[in-house]
Amino acid sequence: MAQVLRGTVTDFPGFDERADAETLRKAMKGLEYGSSLEDDVVGDTSGYYQRMLVVLLQANRDPDAGIDEAQVEQDAQALFQAGELKWGTDEEKFITIFGTRSVSHLRKVFDKYMTISGFQIEETIDRETSGNLEQLLLAVVKSIRSIPAYLAETLYYAMKGAGTDDHTLIRVMVSRSEIDLLNIRKEFRKNFATSLYSMIKGDTSGDYKKALLLLCGGED
C-alpha cells in the first residue's frame, strides 16, 4: 500500500486529482485484486457515505481556474439551505459541491458560508451529519483548507494516547516523505506545541523508531 501511495500521491500545488485517481485504479488492477477499487468501495460501504467515496474516486472535480464569485455565493447559499435552514439534511447537495468543485473555489465557498451563516462549515457538518459520512466530509474540508495541516493532525492522533496507529503513521510518513513532510512538520509544531520528531521519538522504539526519525528528517 505504501508503494501505491508513493506512486500516486502528488504535491499539492500541482495536484492532478483525475490523473492520481486513474493511476490508483490502474494500480489496483495491476495488483490482481480481481475487482476495481470502485467495485470494492461499493461492496463494502453504503448510503451517502458510499456515494461520497465514489464521487471522490471518480475525480470529476472542476479544474482550478478563475474564481466565479456568483457561483461561490450560490454554492454557499445552497449549503446553508441544505443544512442549517432545512428540516433534515440534503446530503446530496453537500456531496455534489464537496466532490466536484475546485479546491480554490471551495476555499472561497467556506469563507462565504461563514459570512452568510455565522457558522464554520465544520460546525454545520457536525450538527447535520453523523458517523462515517460526517468524518469523511470533515476530512474533505480539512484537506481542502490545508493538506499539510490535515496530515499533521492525522499523525498527531495516530500517536496520541495509549497505543499507536502504526498503519496510519507508516502510511503518512512514507507517502509524504518526498513531497511535503517539511510543511507537515511545520504545521505539527504550530498546532500541537511539540515537534513531530519528538512525538515519534517518544512513541516508538527500536529500528522502527530509527527509520521513522530518518524519514522525519530532524527536530523543529
From TrEMBL:
- GO CC, alphabetical: cytoplasm; nucleus; plasma membrane; vesicle membrane
UniProt GO MF annotations: calcium ion binding; calcium-dependent phospholipid binding; phosphatidylserine binding
Task: List the Pfam families.
Answer: Annexin (PF00191)
The protein's UniProt keywords, in alphabetical order, are: Annexin, Calcium, Calcium/phospholipid-binding, Repeat
Instruction: Tell me the Gene Ontology biological-process terms attached to this UniProt entry.
Output: negative regulation of coagulation
Q: Which InterPro entries does the entry mention? A: Annexin, Annexin_repeat, Annexin_repeat_CS, Annexin_sf, ANX5
Which PROSITE patterns does the record match to this protein? ANNEXIN_1 (PS00223), ANNEXIN_2 (PS51897)
Domains as described in the record: A pair of annexin repeats may form one binding site for calcium and phospholipid.
Functionally, this protein is described as follows: This protein is an anticoagulant protein that acts as an indirect inhibitor of the thromboplastin-specific complex, which is involved in the blood coagulation cascade.
Q: Which family does it belong to?
A: Belongs to the annexin family.
Mind telling me what this protein is named? Answer: Annexin
Q: Please report the organism this UniProt entry assigns to the protein.
A: Papio anubis (Olive baboon)
